[in-house]
Write a structure and sequence with these properties.
single chain, 592 residues, alpha/beta, Leucine-rich repeat, LRR (right-handed beta-alpha superhelix), Phosphorylase Kinase, domain 1, Transferase(Phosphotransferase), domain 1, 28 strands, 16% strand
Amino acid sequence: MLRYLQVGFNPLNGGLPDSIGNLSSTIENFHIEDAHINGPIPRGLLNMSGLIALSLGENNLAGSIPSDVVKLEQLQGLYVNNNKLQGHIPEAVCHLSNLVQLSLGGNELFGLIPECLGNLSMLQAIILSSNKFSSKIPLSMWKMSSLLYLIMSQNSIEGEVPQDIGGLKAIVGLDLSGSIPLSFANLISLEYLDLSLNVLSEDVIPSGGVFANSTLQSFIGNKGLCGMHIMEIPACAITTTGQQSKSKKLVLKIVIPVVAASFLIFLFAIVWIMKRRKKANSKDVEKVPEIRTYQLVSYHEIQQATNNFDGSNLIGVGGSGSVYKGTLSSGTVVAIKVLDLQNEEVCKRFDTECEVMRNVRHRNLIPVITTCSSEYIRAFVLQYMPSGSLERWLYIEDCHLNLLQRVTIILDVAQAIEYLHHGHDTPIVHCDLKPANVLLDEEMVAHVGDFGISKILAASKSMAHTETLGTLGYIAPEYGLEGRVSSSGDVYSYGIMMIEVLTKRRPTDDEIFNENLGLRQWIRQSFPKTIMEVVDVNFIHEEEHFNSKSEICIGSMMELALDCTKEMPESRITMRDVVKRLDKIKNTYLGT
């Protein structure tokens, strides 16, 4: 029943035997990236008929891509980048109808790029860079309206980029060789464009569309370019004969190579620094699959999965939309979060959440399987959490959490927020931490979700401003009064939620709290002498082994919550310190 086999980033130093295909037909993800593997791709590997993702990149694999790859009918991600593979791309690849990502860059492949690749309607990323392809880019590729990334640089591609390139309506990243047609302005989704290290000449860099914010770095290595809007690029001085002046050509011959060399050195330095930083960060972040791919879903399939949004499948309703339980055609049970398209602010939140989820992976964050965006719907397809929300466990009559469960859930949430704050070069602030946004799986492991109003802080800044508020009662004072967003605001919300989990009291409980007395002040008045009088009585009375250690544990938790919710942001502790203290509390007083 093995489903995931991940042995990458180990010095295995050998070849893969054909017998590896005997492991299991149920394996969905086989990850053996950067493991010093040599020799050919074993044909036995292609007997793993259930594979969804096959990652063999960053090794020393030689030989060709076997045509037997057609056996992997379920394959959605094929990653064999940065090896020593030779030969052609077999047309068998075109029969992998579920393929979403194809990464063959950094090999020694040559010949024609198959025309039939354009028929793979599910493809979102094609990476063929740093090979020896010499054909034209197939015309069929310019009709791939769902393609997000097309990376073809450092080949010997022939011909010009056709006007049909405007058909790539969803394209986000484009890196290739060729002249620059005006239809590039139609690429409305494009986020970056790299035309460097080619031999483009006698081209004027357009000033509109996707070129409005471009810089010299995108055009390094193309000596004959000119344009008005980029400071470092010479203006297009045309003589009466229609040719550039000799003086301009002389400048181009001298200046551009020097600037190009300088920028390349700078670029290599940045890449080296980022790799070092990534390795350092990876020691503290739980290892998860680097890339997991899933089949895209359409509006029609979401309708079918939810029985046309039948009320019996409705899990919950919030301010931004509704959540349904659904079953995809593959049989996978999922939660489908359907946003309210009538609310313009909600549509902006969809874009924000997509941006955040594109950058995060952690066991305590709710996994987003895929999204659906059309004129009819904006929806997230999420991993289904059968145990429901933390809010439900706190306030539904037949739900009860013991002390160990509460501490474990609080620790799970802390680890998720620590990852958001410290697991990236650019910290992510959730901005709306509360029990309703914490969901529990079948093993009661907590997962944080709903990133609709979260903020990605710039690398050079530790704070941002916003007009979008979170939920009353959980908002940090500086967040509500001044719109100041920082990681310490999440720490405050987390501390309030921790108190709520231990007391079973909402911060907006009108029976107890008012403008003169809030949840934190209530706890502060009771701490430490009478703290047991404000704790949720249910789990104390039902706890079989409640003793003095349990009381000390609760007191330590409340002290930590008060440290999280201090009035001044700079006085609060970090989530990294929260996780360390919670680990110690759990191990010391609960013995796990």
